[in-house]
From TrEMBL:
Annotated signal peptide: 1-17
Keyword presence, Signal: yes
Key words of the record: Signal
Name this protein carries in UniProt: Gingipain propeptide domain-containing protein
UniProt keyword annotation of Signal present: yes
């Protein structure tokens, strides 16, 4: 699958609008499918996962794009130029996240979560 993100910008230094285009390519080999507790667990190489409790836990890739100078984003368009569906019966449900440590408000030191 090839994902193209197009940002249309109005740059302060340039009269009118400028166009900024960035392409990302994801391949089937970037993803893994495994079984966990009777569910299909889908992971992506170097990716995070969605975390809404009970909803399917799916790979996600947060992106930060550097834009030139003072820029004013007018629109964002995301286009998938091709995709392949993965047949998954029961996707693994995202779990409620539990902190592994807490931060002591007085000392600022980390401690074990209860």
């Amino acid at each position: 699958m090839r994902l193209t993100v197009t940002l249309l910008l109005a740059a302060a230094a340039v009269a009118g609008a400028a166009r900024f285009e960035k392409s990302f390519t994801f391949r089937a080999s970037d993803f893994a499918l495994a079984e966990q507790d009777g569910y299909a667990l889908v992971t992506g190489d170097g990716m995070d996962v969605t975390s809404t409790p009970g909803a399917p836990q799916l790979p996600t890739l947060p992106l930060a794009l550097g834009l030139p100078g003072p820029a004013d984003v007018r629109s964002v368009r995301i286009e998938a130029s091709g995709w392949r569906e993965l047949a998954v019966e029961m996707p693994f449900p995202a779990q409620r996240q539990v902190p592994r440590a807490t931060l002591d408000a007085v000392t600022g030191s980390a401690g074990a979560a209860a």
